[in-house]
Structure formats: structure tokens, C-alpha cells
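re: ur msg from earlier - yeah i can do the zinc ion complex, just paste it... oh wait u already did. ok heres what im feeding in:
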Amino acid sequence: MSRKSAVVPDPTAIGNVASPPFARLPDPASLFSARSGRLHQLAEASNLAPYLNFLAELVQAQNDIQSDLPLPESPDAETIARAHVFEMPLLDRGKIGGDKVASTIFDRLFAAAATIDKPVAAAKALARVTAADRAERFAMVQTVFTNRLPADAIAEHVFVWSALQVHFARLASVLDLATLVPVADGLCPVCGGLPVSTMVVGWPGSHGARFCSCSLCGTLWHYVRVKCVLCGSTKGIGYQEIEGQGGIVKAETCDECHGWSKILYQNKDPAADPVADDMASLSLDLLMREGPYHRGGFSPLLAGF
Ligand SMILES: [Zn+2]
Ligand SMILES: [Zn+2]
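and the outut:
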């Protein structure tokens, strides 16, 4: 394993970007099934295969439990207007406490997860999280919202996060893109989540543009390249990668805040997925831990490694 630093930032940064949309909302009917397929595919060439295959099944369950759930309601005009005035995300996370559909999503996902072959530690965590009462579950939800997971209960919170992803992807999917406005740099304009990773896309009309991928709702929002996702600096940006892995995943480092975030090149591999490829590139995280940069964003699957 060797480190490779680019002296000149991101040589393809100019790209042939036309006018990328401000954001792309998630489609929960395809998001999780595609991610599950990608995890199985990545498992074929990975020494993390058993874990990636387990995750693939869990993500497939995120897809399968959605059948016959009622369509979420869009925020009303007053909520949208208030979000615009205060430059806040459109979705109010505080509403989850009384949301019956969210409660159904949790119950269904935990029940589906129980049928999946999994490591012993994951089985124990699932048993604990399934047995949690309303208040305990709500406390875990609030912890996930802080973007920091307690070291002694990471697996429990990964199950909670998985249910939240389904809930928020569904809420995000019915929004009108035209009602979105930017919020703080590096925060999801839909739900206020942190990016799990960022992605250079190959979409027609947006080829070469970079999007942040929300760790919570799955919205992709446009973010210019060669700019730190964590502090907004455009100075001191560098790139590192593990040689011989095709250049699909790199670490974008920032000398201003000493942070780094992961950037995926979906334009080189259209199947690349912000969560699946993040997990499968654990070796890059392990390499970066030897250096001076701390990883930003929120990447629950990697929290336990
Ligand atoms: Zn979001
Ligand atoms: Zn920075």
C-alpha cells in the first residue's frame, strides 16, 4: 500500500460542466436496491466480503420494507417560507417523534434485519435495538442526528440510522426541487445532514460536476470541486489515493482545517455509490489515519473500524 499525492489539484476539475442542478432528490424506490447490488458487486473483490454481503442484505431490506407505505406529505407553504427566511433545511427533524410511518419503518426494518445472516455482535445489537422502548429509540435517533455515535453502541445506532435513511429518503423524494435553497456550507439543504461522501458525476448535462451525498436523506447537492466540504476553503486542497485501485475513490485533504473527505468518481464507474463505495474503501480510511488529517462528514458504517 502506498500513498500518492497529487501536486496539482484535481487535473480534471474544469471538466465540461454545463449547468448542474442545485440538487438531485433521492428516489427511494431505486436508491437502496441499486446500493444493495453495488455492495454485492464490491464484495466479490474485497477482503470485507462477509460484512459487505451482510450490508447488502440490510440495504435490500431498506428497499423491501417500503411497499404499501403511505406517500409522505410535502411541507406546507408556511414551512417552506420559514425555511427560506432562516436559511434552514426544509425537513424538520423534530417531527419524527410523533410520526407513525417512521415508527412502522423502524419496526419493519428491525424485523427484516432479524432474518439476515449476520455477525454475532450485529445480532446482539439488533436484539438490543429491537427491545428498546419508545423513549430509548427516540434517544438513539437524537444521537444519530448529532453525527457522532457512542463507541460502545455503534452497531445499534447503525440499525437506527438505516431506518432513518428510509424515512428521510421518502420525505425528501416528494419535495419540489424548486423550493430548496442552500443552507450552511457542507450541510444538506433538505434535512441538514452531513455528507457521507462526495461524488463527481457523469450525468448528461452535469458531467464532471461534484455533488455531496447526504448521510441521512440521500439527497445529492452540488458543491464545486477543489473546495473543502468541511470548511469551504479553496486553498490548500490536495488529493490522496491508494495506488492500483482505479482512481475511483480519493481523499480530498484540506490544509486550512486539516480535515479530509472522500470523493468518488462516478464518472469513471457509473455504479459507484456514496455509501457502498465509502464502506468498501475502508483501506483508504486506515491509510489516512496515519496522517495529519481528520475525516469530516458522517459515515456511520465506518465508525466501528
Ligand atoms: Zn439530507
Ligand atoms: Zn477545510
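cool cool. Residues 228, 230-231, 233, 254, 256-257, 259 surround zinc ion (ligand 2) (CB under 6 Å). ping me if u need the other ligands too
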